[in-house]
Write the structure tokens for this entry.
Amino acid sequence: MSFELPTAALDLDELAELRSTVRSAATESGYPGEVRELELSTSGLDPELWSLLAQDIGLGGVGLPETAGGLGGLAEILAVAEELGAALAPVPFVTSTVLCGQVLAACGDAAMPCVERIASGEIAAPAFTNNRGLWSPTDLSCSSDGVSVSGSIRFTPFGANAAFFVVGARTDAGIDVFVVEAADAQVQALPSLDFSSPSATVTFDSAPAIRLTHDGSGEGAISQGVDLALLAVAADQLGGSQACFDMTLEYIKVRRQFNREIGSFQAIKHRMADALMLVEMLRSGLEKVTSGGADDLAVEAAVNKSWGSDSYIAMTAEAIQLHGGIGFTWEHNAHLYFRRARYDSAFLGDSVFQRERLATLLNW
């Protein structure tokens, strides 16, 4: 059981307009700077921004089936994720629309009412990872008797904001997908390094559940959703990396030492050239996927997520260093990107995990 994303030829003008719309909505809401205001928030969500993006602009349905109110395909998913990443927007696009939406879309007609809820802007949270926040079919945290779900999931993204949970649980038939309403779960918000990416521990105690798959096909549905989400995370990493590069480039053009702009120093030029390579290598990897050059989505997901994780962390560290003393201050945005880089790296497996997964996929 699977759902194929639309593969129609892209209208580059419309894609550029989509990017501009998303960027304007996020920046006009004050991001990335407004992320600081979420430090003491238990939700880590900007509900007004998400309502604007998901409902008014229609981002809640990006990449989902048209019959459920969806629009666009993989190129649109990655474009939106990149722009939201550049602005550090505190919204659940990657986790709700992409990850949960794609898992549900792969579950067939029975899941369409839930897909419609996501497309309309309701927040779904994934609940199929283990205690390390990783998707592993051999290490599930939840089990089910077919009508209820039991288990506890740590590091559930936007768990405290969810209207319902998309649960992967072990059954007699194998791994199947269930939906549990938030009212039937116990949720404990967790502190997060990235103020704009909250998580929670979610516990199900014989929680009533709607079963969407019955033959163990849930494993394939979840795996497909995870791979697409990994690509979306890589796009988020690309957006953040490019934003860090751009603000650093502007700074070294105006910061003067020894009566010269520091950007004229040879050592700085070399460091910026290396930083640009990190960004452009990730961009080329994602462009390969959207251009139709990817033969194996799982392989491309592992490659892009591993490269994106390392390059984003390196780019944010470089941005802090090259901004000098101001780069280490609370008032500067550099540390906000550094926090997102660390969160993105850990989400669904860091670069080491992804390279090990890649080796397995390629039978190395």
User: Anything to note?
Assistant: The mean pLDDT is 93. The beta strands are 124-127, 142-144, 148-157, 164-171, 174-181, 186-190, 199-208, 210-211, 256-257, 260-261. The chain has ten helices and ten strands. The longest strand covers residues 148-157.
